[in-house]
Amino acid sequence: GVRLVGGKIVSVPLRSHAAIHPGTRAYVYGNRVVNAGFNGIWARAGSTIDLNYVRNACMVLDDCAGIYLGDSKDAIVKRNLVYQAPGAIDGKPELQRYTQAQGIFLDDHMTGAVVSGNTVIGADHGIQIHNAFNNRIEGNTLYGNRKYQLLLQEDSKKLRTDGDIHSNTIHGNISVPEHAAPSILHTTIYESTSDFSSYSANVYSALLSADVAREYWAGNEKTFRFPEWQSAKDAAGAPRNLDPDGRLVTLSGFAGFRMGATNLIPNGKLTGGASGWSSWNATAPLGSLTVASCPVGPCLQYLTGASAGVVSSANFATVKDRWYRLSFDVLTESPTQTIRWAVRRGRGGPGGYVSLMGGGHRIYGSPSWKRYSHIFKASATVNVNDPVTLDRGARLDFQNDLIGKRFWIANAELVEASPVGTSALKTNVIMNPTFRAELVSCPDSGTDAVFCGKYVRLSDGAPIIWPHTLPPLGAEVIYSRGDTLVDTDGDTIADVQDSCPASPPGAEVDSRGCAIGQ
Q1: 425: number of CA atoms within 13 Å, CB side?
Q2: Does the N-terminal or the C-terminal CB of the chain have fewer CB atoms within 10 Å?
Q3: What proportion of the chain, given as a percentage, has pLDDT over 70?
Q4: How far apart are CA 216 and CA 15, in angstroms?
Q5: Residue 351: its pLDDT value, please?
Q6: Does residue 223 have a pLDDT over 90?
Q7: Which is nearest to 437 in space by CA: 477, 474, 478, 476?
């Protein structure tokens, strides 16, 4: 491990594989592993890793995990609590200046593993499966991991011509992001992700975003809402049967935010033509941005030039930790286009083009107009033409990577989303890092005590009675919807603000509650 003083490593880095690194058929039980320089626990074939507490793995070296299994078989990982894996970017090249610290990592042709009843909090990915097959991931709780709660990543064909990830089983897990990214990511450099895994009886949080999964394959990608995930088909048109008995946790019937009346994006509705909007292209011929008349109202048409092009809105201001609701309409020329979009800091000052909403997002192309909406908490305060920071302001960016293709934008809208009443939606997790059953107090009893009487268990919606008993190394995801307003049509806009009170089920709406065509 390492020695920390004031959160800084003060010990000399030494070569290490793991804090605990036994051979085959090992039994690793009841250990506390804290501040590991590399992997926390790394066991070989036939081993059992049971009831261990691993906190702060990957402190010196990156690309590791709290619990690591690689190029092996038939391991059992159960009832462990993996809490925080900070990762280490010092010494990494500029193109890899990101952490790769996983909670539980099944790497390089791991097979026959059973990963059950574990809790992972605060890693880059809760559980990662990399070129591994025939593993069972069951009954785990994945909360607040920085990128995705579950990552299945394929980049080898050593054992199978279709790729080495296949036939995994994902059953009965709880996945809860603290940001608006989906819970699951499937990614391959080959043709298909459709046989990566079966899914059943999993519970997904849609409290912050309705997106539950994302897939990348051979230059394409798609993001899934829960109904789309359940109805997904493979390339031959056969149903994939993803989570037919799964469950989505939502605020159905209620709205937790009141929408502001002012569109913060100057000329977002394009009533002033292209005023304030701009485009950028790295190489000639450059792209062209023109005003058009579209069925949804005034719109901008962008024709991408010789390289990926960006369309940017006029600058506006954001305030750190304030909630915002974004909506916009997009049409693409080709169904194979993907449009990346983000609210981020614009030019000026040393801050760079960083996202203000927890990463960027992609839209899979549609030859018919579609409305998209997204709610997020701003990660920084950015003022327009700030004389101190030199920021020019925040902006909404759209990027088209398909050269020579057009896309259209209309009705861009960003409004403040104010929590209803004295409290807003909040997720949290309570955990017991000891090896005996413990009574756990409300985590908000000091500063946000208003939530303590409102929390329910995400697993079944039952109210939490404090103090709450947790088993050894146990954890429970909880949430409070806070004060709410009735939302009869379930479009996230409260009835008292809804100008279109009968939006089609599942339709995306603007801040007035209106879908396209309403």
Answers
A1: 26
A2: C
A3: 97
A4: 35
A5: 72
A6: no
A7: 474
Burial of 348 (0-12, 13-18, 19+ CB in 10 A): middle
Q: Hey, what are 452's tokens?
A: 């303590």
Cα distances (Å, whole numbers) of residue 196 to 136, 200, 450: 12, 14, 43
Q: Is 70 exposed, middle or buried (0-12, 13-18, 19+ CB in 10 A)?
A: middle
Pair of tokens at residue 365: 């192309």
Q: Which two tokens stand for residue 249?
A: 């946790």
Strand-pair category, 76-78 with 48-50: parallel
Q: Measure the CA–CA gap between 168 and 135, rounded to whole angstroms.
A: 5
Burial string for 439-463 (b: 16+ CB within 10 Å, else e) reads: ebebbbeeeeeebeebbebbeeeee
Residue linked to tokens 């995930």: 229
In sequence order, what are the residues at sequence separation of 6 or more whose Cβ sits closer than 8 angstroms to the Cβ of residue 462? 456
Least confident range from 102-106, 164-168, 379-383: namely 379-383
Tens of pLDDT, residue by residue over 58-116, are 999 999 999 999 989 999 999 999 999 999 888 888 777 789 999 999 999 999 999 99
Q: What is the DSSP letter of 231?
A: T
Mean pLDDT of the chain: 90
Please give the DSSP secondary-structure letter assigned to residue 133: B
Q: Are strands 309-312 and 361-364 parallel, antiparallel or unpaired?
A: unpaired
